[in-house]
């Protein structure tokens, strides 16, 4: 279970940094499938960028309670909304579990990992933890591969899923395009609300002057 300030990695926090915007805090703490949340913004597609045997990142090994030299199965994808990358995800499971408890992970192809994680009642999930990601973190390098312009600091979240005691960690990094889309949606909603208010006010004035039918 990830804790608010894990002594082995104080960067990851269950409570998001207070300096983050409300939108970022919202998306970093939303439960359920991130893919499902993205579908509220448009058509979602999954681009698999890498599946391979590798070694875990230092902070992954600590959270999974394995040694840094334990071989793992890695799946990296870009989640796109209407063809634009909004999120890069990095999932890792001990290699032995990838051919056992979590063997279905290897057969997903372009289907989202959420299909495995949220359709099985035997799967439990830890608390979500989040942090800022800078160029020093390998997740930032994955983000840069998806977009030419990447902010110096991005935000990411992670959690550990367990099935029959076998942990699988999913780390998701939000890209700038997500915040741009959300800001545009808020601006459009504000304009529509303003136009509706203006129309109602105009109608009320016409009624007051006996002009409206």
UniProtKB/TrEMBL annotation:
Keywords annotated in UniProt: Cytoplasm, Lyase, Pyruvate, Ubiquinone biosynthesis
Residues engaged in binding substrate: 75, 113, 172
Gene Ontology BP term (one): pyruvate biosynthetic process
Any Pfam family hit: Chor_lyase
E.C. designation(s): 4.1.3.40
GO molecular function, one term: chorismate lyase activity
Described function: Removes the pyruvyl group from chorismate, with concomitant aromatization of the ring, to provide 4-hydroxybenzoate (4HB) for the ubiquinone pathway.
Protein's name in the database: Probable chorismate pyruvate-lyase
The encoding gene: ubiC
């Amino acid at each position: 279970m990830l804790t608010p300030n894990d002594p082995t990695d104080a960067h990851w926090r269950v409570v998001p940094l207070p300096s983050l915007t409300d939108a970022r805090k919202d998306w970093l703490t939303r439960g359920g499938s991130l893919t499902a949340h993205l579908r509220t913004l448009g058509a979602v597609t999954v681009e698999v960028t890498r599946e391979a045997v590798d070694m875990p990142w230092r902070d992954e090994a600590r959270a999974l309670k394995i040694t840094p030299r334990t071989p793992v199965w890695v799946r990296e994808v870009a989640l796109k909304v209407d063809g634009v990358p909004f999120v890069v995800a990095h999932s890792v499971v001990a290699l032995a579990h990838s051919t056992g408890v979590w063997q279905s992970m290897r057969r997903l192809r372009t289907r989202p990992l959420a299909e495995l994680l949220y359709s099985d009642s035997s799967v439990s999930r830890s608390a979500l933890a989040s942090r800022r990601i800078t160029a020093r973190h390998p997740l930032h390098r994955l983000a840069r591969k998806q977009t030419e312009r990447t902010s110096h600091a991005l935000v990411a979240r992670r959690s550990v899923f367990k099935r029959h005691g076998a942990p699988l960690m999913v780390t998701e990094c939000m890209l700038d395009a997500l915040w741009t889309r959300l800001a545009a949606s808020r601006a459009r909603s504000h304009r529509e609300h303003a136009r509706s208010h203006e129309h109602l006010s105009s109608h009320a004035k016409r009624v007051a002057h006996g002009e409206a039918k």
